[in-house]
Amino acid sequence: MNQYLKAVIVGTGFGGLGQAIQLEKAGIRNYLVLEKADDVGGTWRDNSYPGCECDVEAHLYSLSYEQKADWLRDFATRSEIFTYLSNIADKHRLRSKIRFGVGLTGATWEPDQCRWRLSTTTGEELFCQFLISAVGGLHIPRLPELPGLETFKGQVWHSSQWNHDFDFAGKRVAVIGTGASGIQLVPPIAADAAKLYVFQRTPHWVLPKRNRDVPGWLRALFKHIPGAQRIYRNTIYWRREMRALAFNGRLELWEGPESIAKQHIARHIKDSALREKLTPKYTMGCKRVLFSNDYYPALARDNVELVTDSVADVRADSVVDASGVEREIDAIIYATGFRITDALDYLHIIGTDKRFLAEEWATGGMRAHLGTTVAGFPNMFFLLGPNTAVTHTSVTVMLEAQARYVVNAIKLVDNSGAAALDVRRDVQEEFQTTIQQKLVKGVWTRGGCTNFYHDAAGVNRAIWPGFTWQFWLATRRVRRKDYRLLHRAPQDRRLETI
Ligand code: NAP
After folding, report:
1. Residue ranges of the domains in the chain?
2. Mutate to test the pocket of ligand 1, among 139, 140, 201 (most ligand atoms within 8 A of CB)
3. Is any atom of ligand 1 closer than 6 Å to the C-beta of 283?
4. What is the pLDDT of residues 272-331, one digit of tens each?
5. Beta bridge partners of 123
6. How many Å separate Cα 385 from the centre of its chain?
């Protein structure tokens, strides 16, 4: 069955669900959400590794208009966030709008009709006026090729595709990678496995996590006193906005946190050689700042070894490092992160004049006006698109701003009697120039590390360089002059009633 829809959203994480709610609020009901999995939740559905929790306070890492008064801890666990998202889907009756088990595989712009023709994993074809990608940037595992891996007889998996059937008791395990996921999953594995080898390429800065149970009286206050939770949330928000200063150029502000992190290492790691290996040589903030109370204690355990040599060879039941040391293992866990700057390459998106998005971004770099719209791809929106990631605060703030921008863009098209809008290329390029000029001043560029924010050409395609309120202001309204308005060919005007 071919269906013509006003809008299609792809993905049901914070982005997709939040966008669906905003469409509903705007009275736009003829839309569908495609979800390749069998439930909502996005990254919080997929990442079910032990120890998974958020490193941004739950009262901020949530939708501002869907506040939950009874978060159990300051930093919520993965399961509490997953439940929160499920409840939102139920409360807003979104499940009936979601096609579970249907993934988008491609989209082609049909200029005469001013619509997108969508292909899906189930073979079904859909047509829509507006296409909104809410697939996020953290869903395609980055799986570095380990020499000899094909000969390995044990189990291998990525942190975002957890093997829940594996019993760690008595097992020898290698974890590759010590980023945000790695440092969370190492402590529970260390407690269960016979032996754990942690392969670290570059040490990350790790600060203590000031996590605590939210006291009952505070939860009651949030529930019963109007505005109390909003004040609490705003306090967290503005405290975190201050941190943007350090990320965006005031690198001297990292001295204090670096000293706290060094004390954190010293408190838990008594072996000076191990302390040295764990101490980063770059400025904090260059890679994502991590928070954990149990990572260093786990590394100090007798059954855990930090390996700083790379994997040189994988054999049937062992791993040999670059120094020639062989360690017997039963499982390899990739905590090696995600493909970010080519995350959308698997989608076959064809815009005006047969432009192929993946090719355009591969040659010119990922780019979008306000991280949301791309010249030559009319009526298409990218939630958490290029340069909208934030390292100092909650991405949900950015997602809410984008969802509102999308609704305003749809209204602009509808109110102007046009059928589509396409961002002007010069506007998009001017935006690129502005943010790249800001990015070179940031710690991601000047901090002296390599990070996944930069693409193969060395350009930062991930980070929003500034405060989130600046993004909020920039996306507050859709500027008519930034866009070309497109109309349907006369014979296709009948679609205008949709
Ligand atoms: P990540 O931060 O990119 O860390 C990947 C780790 O794997 C790094 O230690 C990296 O080393 C290592 N690695 C990558 N390729 C390697 C190779 N070929 N050989 C050896 N080591 C290799 O990935 P992640 O931990 O999955 O986190 C990704 C993102 O997810 C985070 O930045 C964050 O945005 C999000 N996340 C958030 C939370 C949260 O609490 N909110 C929790 C988990 C994840 P190098 O540093 O040397 O590259």
Report:
1. 3-40+94-140+340-497, 149-204+242-334
2. 201
3. no
4. 999 999 999 999 999 999 999 999 999 999 999 999 999 999 999 999 999 999 999 999
5. none
6. 10
